[in-house]
Amino acid sequence: MLLGARTGRERFWDCYDELWRYSWKYFVDHEYGAWYRILTCDNRQIRRRKIARRQDRLSHDGHVLRSAERAFFAPNFTVKTMASEQTTFPQFVSAGDILTDMIRTDVSSWLSRPGGAGWNVARAVAQLGLPTACAGSLGTDNFSDDLWDVSVASGLDMRFMQRVERPPLLAIVHKTQPPTYYFMGENGADLAFEPSKLPQGWMERVKWAHFSCISLVRQPLGSTLAKLAAQLRDHGVKISFDPNYRNLMEHGYEPILRNMASLADLIKVSDEDLHKLFPGVPEADALAKIRAMNPQATVLVTRGSDEASLFVGDAVYKGRPPSVEVADTVGAGDASIGGLLYSLMARHGEWPDHLKFALTAGAAACRHSGGHSPTLAEVEELLG
Length: 384
Known about the structure:
UDP-N-acetylmuramoyl-L-alanine:D-glutamate ligase
């Protein structure tokens, strides 16, 4: 597991999964519980004695895996001796938009920070407690290593993140007030993402998939992600879409916007997105244009600390984020949509309850600097 997490090589994860499948098949007594201590070379129990008490089981789990490891790497071991149980899969996948922000802090000083809207949403859902993956491709450089390490620490399923020998995608933020930026990543690692290399069978298990931001305009990745979204929808997966406007969308973005909106069950936009996507158009008219692209989609409109709106069919629900001491607003919108998706997947309630949870998650993110992803405990504390 450690080798898989550190290097990103699939063969280490394959070995790790095989060890667990073998242990589950042969070491666990599925009728009465607990572990068998020792097996013969043909996977039979030497005797029926097991590790029965809970405290003893906890102390001996490692011994069982080590026994499995010895069996797995034995000279006459074959895959046929292993179980065929299904591998677990994430309930939520955010696809694309993984990058490093290079933020100018002084005339000659810069701060690198792992980021990307899609990656932020994945971390938000994972931190709240659902099995989550961020699907995409990283390089083998130091920036990509940082992204990989934080992804592991956030609990993301790393089988969905690929690594290739290409340069990283960087967002160069040379001014913060107002934000002024450009992107570097010609022939970047993110463009090499291949959905065909993702774990077999994952589409049948995932509940929601999220798509957003600049990955949809960076070709050929944009076309790859649009095709993936359509395939997922055909598999019955619900689609979430957040345009999350950036300057790369200034020209030629409308066909992408229309296509992704038509696939989405949930669309999230901010008031700023609406002004940028439809310059010179009043917010209400811009929102009407978005809703006309897919009248069946639920639409969340956030307005910073002001009142947000959630449109569900003909119904409109309003809500305001709780008041907090703001340290940073970076990633607040990502935390909000992540909170809404988590609430829809994991919590019972009506639409006003889901909206309240989403806005509270966004507010919780603002209490910390650097694109913070709040835990469930942080959100529940604010909910009261």
